[in-house]
């Protein structure tokens, strides 16, 4: 299975969704941001992005039913208090799909938009084909005006076979050093099994093949971790970095933009250790995982096992997630094991 048609559809969907997100982020109204019951933010751009991706995949791949595992649902938009927001999302979606000539005759109603958003209720699993979407990965970063990503992947019988990451605020140049303020921003990373990972600008430049860092000495490595302290145990990652002899301070950025930056060698290690009781969602890692692995990297849990996307909407993990190159894996796993063993006694 070549997946060329699916990859083309995924790239088109991610590009249009990113266009909508860029428009909203440039002029974000207070009313554009809502709060879910778990106290995490959701914006009109999250909903609009999900509706666009669903619409594009349905249109471009109409020969098979769409199964989409995605973060958002329309529950709050169906309430009386959500009517104005739904109208704004519908307007944004229609303005955005009109960018593409092949959709110029399409106009979605608010009901169409609700239906598109709710197509993301699939549970995924180990059989069949399932798209996996985070319409805005890093919503807090998006609201803050920082990094975020539209992350879309395809599972085939539980395996990630392609992934696309649109990172509208990520510079095209490496973020390893000080990025000049005039540096062009907006990257699209994409990968499919056996074909490598490519990056191009969101404005459509020619793609270039990317590869993870070839650093073999952890002392020379720099590492990424989540910007939000609540998203990872930074004391633990600091302990691991000390054991590895890492000299550079951590680069803290939001979203799966970290996976994109890692895939092109901006840093050599990404570590994420969530707090007790938190279950990682597959949409937070599926696209980033294949982007890194097809660029020659490794994405594993703290026990050294590959991530398993076949169990439904969540990942069952041993302690945390590590993304790096192959040469650094043994020393990182040793440092992780030692730091985890020390952790209980450090309280």
TrEMBL record:
Kindly provide the name given to this protein in its UniProt entry.
Answer: 3'(2'),5'-bisphosphate nucleotidase
For activity, the cofactor(s) needed are: Mg(2+)
Species this chain originates from: Rhodamnia argentea
Q: Which GO terms describe its molecular function?
A: 3'(2'),5'-bisphosphate nucleotidase activity; inositol-1,4-bisphosphate 1-phosphatase activity; metal ion binding
Cite the source lineage.
Eukaryota, Viridiplantae, Streptophyta, Embryophyta, Tracheophyta
Q: Which Pfam families does the UniProt entry name for this protein?
A: Inositol_P
Q: Which residues bind Mg(2+)?
A: 71, 134, 136-137, 284
InterPro entries, per the entry: DPNP, Inositol_monoP_metal-BS, Inositol_monoP_superfamily, Inositol_monophosphatase-like, Inositol_monophosphatase_CS
Q: Which UniProt keywords apply?
A: Hydrolase, Magnesium, Metal-binding, Multifunctional enzyme
According to its UniProt record, this protein's enzyme class is hydrolase
The gene that this protein is the product of is LOC115750483
């Amino acid at each position: 299975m070549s997946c060329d048609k699916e990859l083309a559809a995924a790239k088109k969907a991610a590009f249009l969704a990113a266009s909508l997100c860029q428009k909203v982020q440039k002029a974000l109204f207070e009313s554009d941001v809502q709060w879910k019951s778990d106290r995490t933010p959701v914006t009109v751009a999250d909903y609009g992005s999900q509706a666009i991706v669903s619409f594009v995949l349905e249109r471009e791949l109409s020969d098979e039913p769409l199964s989409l595992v995605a973060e958002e649902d329309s529950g709050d938009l169906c309430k009386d208090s959500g009517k104005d927001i739904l109208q704004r999302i519908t307007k944004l979606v229609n303005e955005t799909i009109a960018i593409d000539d092949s959709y110029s005759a399409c106009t979605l109603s608010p009901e169409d938009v609700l239906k598109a958003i709710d197509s993301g209720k699939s549970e995924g699993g180990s059989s069949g084909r399932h798209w996996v979407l985070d319409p805005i990965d890093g919503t807090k970063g998006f609201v803050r005006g920082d990094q975020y990503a539209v992350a879309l992947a395809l599972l085939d019988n539980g395996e990630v076979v392609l992934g696309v990451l649109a990172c509208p605020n990520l510079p095209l140049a490496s973020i390893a050093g000080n990025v000049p303020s005039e540096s062009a921003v907006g990257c699209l990373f994409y990968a499919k099994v056996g074909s490598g990972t490519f990056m191009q600008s969101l404005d459509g430049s020619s793609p270039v093949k990317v590869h993870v860092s070839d650093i073999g000495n952890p002392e020379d490595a720099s590492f990424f971790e989540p910007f939000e302290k609540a998203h990872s145990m930074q004391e633990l990652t600091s302990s691991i970095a000390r054991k590895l002899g890492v000299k550079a301070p951590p680069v803290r950025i939001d979203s799966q933009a970290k996976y994109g930056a890692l895939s092109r060698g901006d840093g050599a290690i990404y570590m994420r250790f969530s707090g007790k009781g938190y279950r990682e969602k597959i949409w937070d890692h599926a696209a980033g995982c294949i982007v890194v692995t097809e660029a020659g990297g490794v994405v594993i849990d703290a026990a050294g096992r590959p991530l398993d996307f076949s169990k439904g909407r969540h990942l069952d993990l041993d302690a945390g997630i590590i993304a790096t190159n192959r040469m650094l894996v043994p020393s990182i796993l040793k440092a992780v094991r030692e730091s985890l063993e020390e952790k209980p006694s450090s309280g």
